[in-house]
Amino acid sequence: MSSADIPQGTGTPAPEKRLGLIRRAWHFVLDLIDVLLKPSSIFGLGVLVLAGFVAGVIFWGGFNTALELTNTEKFCTGCHEMKDNVFAELKTTVHFSNRSGVRASCPDCHVPHNWTDKIARKMQASKEVWGHLFGSIDTREKFVDRRLELALHEWARFKANDSLECRNCHSAQSMDITKQSPRAVEAHQRFLFTGEKTCIDCHKGIAHHLPDMRGVPGWQ
Amino acid sequence: MIKKLAMMLLAASLAAGSSALLAQSVSSSLRGPTPLNDEGPAPPMQPTKNTAEKEVRNYPEQPPVIPHSIDGYQVDIQGNKCLSCHARARTAESKAPMLSITHFMDRDGQFLASVSPRRYFCTQCHVPQSTATPPVSNDFVDIDTVLSHDKPGAKR
To answer: Do B72 and A93 touch (CB under 8 A)?
Structure first.
């Protein structure tokens, strides 16, 4: 850090006053590091540990709460892009209303539940904030035009993680095929239990309308 | 006196009988017990038949019925879910019956390379089956049964 900052402060021939400001800031940083490295002479070790622990709890709790706030149906449908297109389509499907009243909302399928994967996905989602700010899908026409591209991203993600978000609820181990229709039994035994295919290979377009499917494997 | 009593009894029984008949004629119709000037509650929707078994056609020209559920199947300009099993190239994997070659014909009888646009929307002709029991029974017999009546010794 220091090796990167010193040439910037000394190398550029800037006016005297501005150079002084940067110097002063740099000295302040050095003083701060000095203070942070020195043992406390006022607070007891117990107080410091306890304060650090409490601050850590507050910071971690706050961070996670904020993160979970962005993981709700309400947050996702806060943008009209989501509310008027994909969320409107979800409402007609079995994942929204069904006989047992279990609902899979946006983050259940689109955000990994595992923490590190979740953070990785959240960082990727900063691209979506960009898209929202610059209106890449802010009309129905723009959305429909890009639907294939967006769908391909999600299909690739599901394919890569072996449909993990499907399996968070629909586990092959707890599937009772005697309760399924004969067609489903046949297909699941041949393709799912053997690992030949993953959920998304056959179950595309179950929660949202399909894009133009020409050229997608298994479709006409 | 006895005659008078008998007449009263007869009148009473007639009245009772006719009212019972009247009540019965109102409640025994397909409408159920709802009075004619009221709209009764709709019966619950029955689930569709969901098997893998082919159903026999009642006459040769009949479009085969769909023996399974097609809930949520998208058939529009974007794609055709039915064809992801029933298309020619998909039948080896899916073991579903291939849609017949007549579906490749255009209106002039020319065979196209793929499904003709006029045959693209499957549910125009092919329909899933409800599990509901029909309120009116059907005494349809197919042509084979009719023809077998002519055979010697067959029941007429």
So the answer is: yes
- Residue A214 placed within a domain: no
Domain that holds residue A28: 2-65
Mapping DSSP to helix (H, G, I), strand (E, B) and coil, where does residue B130 land?
strand
- The reply to whether residue B50 touches residue A183, judged by beta carbons under 8 angstroms, is yes
Is the full-model pTM beyond 0.90? no
Q: CB of B52 within 8 A of CB of B67?
A: yes
DSSP assignment, residue B149?
A: T
Residue A112 lies in a domain: yes
**Dihedral of alpha carbons B36, B40, B45, B46, sign:** negative
| ipTM of the complex as predicted | 0.71
Distance CA A162, CA A149 (A): 20
Number of domains chain A contains: 2
Residues of chain A with pLDDT below 50 are 1-7, 9-10
Q: Which candidate, A149, A155, A67, places its Cα nearest to that of A113?
A: A67
